[in-house]
Amino acid sequence: xxxxxxxxxxxxxxxxxxxxxxxxxxxxxxxxxxxxxxxxxxxxxxxxxxxxxxxxxxxxxxxxxxxxxxxxxxxxxxxxxxxxxxxxxxxxxxxxxxxxxxxxxxxxxxxxxxxxxxxxxxxxxxxxxxxxxxxxxxxxxxxxxxxxxxxxxxxxxxxxxxxxxxxxxxxxxxxxxxxxxxxxxxxxxxxxxxxxxxxxxxxxxxxxxxxxxxxxxxxxxxxxxxxxxxxxxxxxxxxxxxxxxxxxxxxxxxxxxxxxxxxxxxxxxxxxxxxxxxxxxxxxxxxxxxxxxxxxxxxxxxxxxxxxxxxxxxxxxxxxxxxxxxxxxxxxxxxxxxxxxxxxxxxxxxxxxxxxxxxxxxxxxxxxxxxxxxxxxxxxxxxxxxxxxxxxxxxxxxxxxxxx
Length: 404
What we know:
By secondary structure, this protein is an alpha+beta fold. Helices cover 47% and strands 14% of the residues. The chain has one domain (74-118, 147-401): Aminoglycoside 3'-phosphotransferase, Chain: A, domain 2 (Alpha-Beta Complex). Strands 1-2-3-5-4 form a 5-stranded antiparallel β-sheet. A two-stranded antiparallel sheet has the order 6-9. The longest helix is centred in the C-terminal third of the chain and has 27 residues, at 335-361. This is CHK kinase-like domain-containing protein.
């Protein structure tokens, strides 16, 4: 598998033959980087155009795909995360969990629920060396899907659509747990282990780095005791090891932010669909952890400051309505218990939100940035004014909600 922004034709044909059958013939293919430098900090992601014929008598088809491959060997993220586990998890989600959730939605009259892009095949870590690992999926951008500006965040209409879809996704996860217990317990739970990041012994602790950076802003330093309770070595351990009590364990995305949420509009310009991508971090834990992370990192200032409670209510009402329709007992999920679980989950997601803002607001020279510069350019660099403003608003929101 070549890594110069192209997929080897022989490799691509093998992957597509596994999807469509051995008689498929690849006629033409081309590929290029899907995202500009500095927009993706981990995996290599290519857009692929392929002309194929399923057999000698079939018409030519044009496929527009995305190929997600392992990071380059020199990428700093490979020293931080175990991408072998991450890729296994993502492949399992696309090829196993997504189809089951779709079947459950149809079974219980929830409509055609396709939360993720369609899978077109994969080469797993156990089948090759790291350089050959790849996931093929449909190119949603070619179909007109888009992500909002990560610095501006989602407006109210996009946020409402997202929260309703997220609640539906979570509720169908509980439906899977209830109605497909063998699959859920034997397969989903097995593949949903959290993958902690690795840090060399001589590296400065990232929690300590972020706390010191936050304290340079007088507005944040005023709340240093509250902030330290949520950014300290113990919380770092809890982020990866804490598992919610029942009945709150199910499927959680765990990286639910702007760039992993894609929207579509109809011919009249009205929002009509939303899809989620990048499931390499999905876990078996409280799905409510996706809520504070999304609301605090990926909504506009106006939405975060004026519509936060409205969106929490919308999530809860949608979640309960879908649980009822898919025949899952809602008694354990009262609003009081929901609020208590959300407070617990928010305390775990505070650090996640703070470091996400550091990534989103980093001032990257797109022409010269490469993935080996992750630490000096993104993590350890001085925050800009926008980052400090966003951090301040997260702290204000947490205090208003009684989460810190």
